[in-house]
Every structure is written in structure tokens, then in C-alpha cells.
Design a protein that fits this description.
With 262 residues, the chain is of the alpha/beta class. It has helices spanning 2-16, 74-79, 100-109, 126-136, 165-183, 193-199, 218-221, 254-261; strands at 43-44, 61-65, 84-91, 95-96, 113-119, 147-149, 188-191, 209-212, 229-237, 245-250. The chain is globular and about 40 Å long.
Amino acid sequence: MRFLICVLMLVALAACGNPFSRSPSAVGAAMGYAPAAGAPQFGDFNPYPWPARTPRAYPVHGIDVSHWQGDIDWPAVRAAGVSFAYIKATEGKTHADPRFDENWRGAGRAGIARGAYHYYNFCRTADEQARWFIENVPRERGALAHVLDMEWTPTSRKCPYRPAGTKIRAEADRFLDKLERHYGRRPVVYTTVDFYRDTGIGNLRGTQFWLRSVAGHPSQVYPGADWTFWQYTGTGEVAGIEGPVDINAFAGSQSAWRRWRG
């Protein structure tokens, strides 16, 4: 009976055509399917009881790191099945992650696809922050599309400011435009459930999204949203890293991933 159900699912997908011709996150239809063949096996220090191990329906997984992860054994990370790494580079207009250069070189030497991310400060202008990122992140052929991390910072002593959604979207657009002109590819926007809901950031045109959702599939938590990356845990366990790390899934197949990364 299980085999028959799987066959019927495959027939239904074939009738719909190639889902990735529409958008990477069309693979969200795979929610609840059996684990993808060859999917990496990561641990979790505080695992969520995913129905049918939903994140494992996706074959391409990666991590995002900063200096908080300490020393990273990048060859061990690659051997664990990590396909990509997003590395914190900058924050605001003056802060640079002290381990960015080390992590950037380490991931590159290990053959892991890498990109950099900027943590946005709402008390600084988009122009200032874009310049700071460009000063610190090399323009390298083969790098992934970089990332703008936008989320609320209610515990910040220096900048608990919460601008209106219209202002946030305008600043994000300006930041993304500047990086796109410099690096030749429009950055991805990372965000969280409350920020997405409060600001309408999902209305940015021509923008791909990386969505955090550690207790539900994005199709449930962000109804109707298109996405490229899904951060499904903040307490992941990956060989080569001491302590917890964020783990993310790419929305498409292996071939879609090769096309996307370029």
C-alpha cells in the first residue's frame, strides 16, 4: 500500500510539471514525504518532533555561523554533509565579525559554497551599512548571493528602534540595490516570523527570502510566501563545530541547487 501511495504522489507531481520552473519553494509540496535519498544526517541538541521528518525531504542543507561558533573544523563540516555556509561578516556600520576572514578562508579551502551576511542596524542608514559590508567582503567569483539579515532587536541597548514597515522596505531595497551593483547578484533577505508579519518585508519585489521557522514548515508559518532557504533549527549539531549551530535547507533539488549557486 505504501508503494502504491508513493507511485500516486509521483504521478501527481509529474502531472503538475517541473515545480522548480515556477519557484524553488514549490518543493514545499514534498512536505511529509519520505526523507530524500542521501540527505545529510545532522544531530540536534533540542530536536523538534517534525512530522515525517519534514526537513529531510530536502537534499541540500547548510549552516550559518559567526564568531560564536568558535574554532570550526571545516573539512569535518563538509564531510558531515554541509553543502553551503553563510558566514557573518558585518553588523551596522562599524562592527565586523572577528572570525569572518578565518571562516571565509576555511570554508573555501574545504570546498564548501559560501556567502556572507550582514546584520542590519535600524539606527544606521542603508548607505552606511552597504558601504561597510562592501569594505569587508571580497568580490569573488563563485560566491553565493550574499544576505541581508533583518529582524527585530528588542534586547538591544543601543538600538531598540522599530521603524515603520514602509521605511524598512525602502531601506532594504536601497541596501540590496547597492550590493547588487557591486557584486553582480541581488542578495537574499533573511528574516523571522514576527518581522515578516509586522513589516510586510515579503512584499519586496525581485527578492528571494530565507525564512526562519523552527517549529513548523514555512508553508504553514508563512502562508503563501515564496522562499529559497529555510532555517529549521537553531540548535543543530554538526561534526566539526563545538556546540549548537543554525541549520538550513535549500528549497530545491540538487540540480536546482547547482543552477541557483551558479
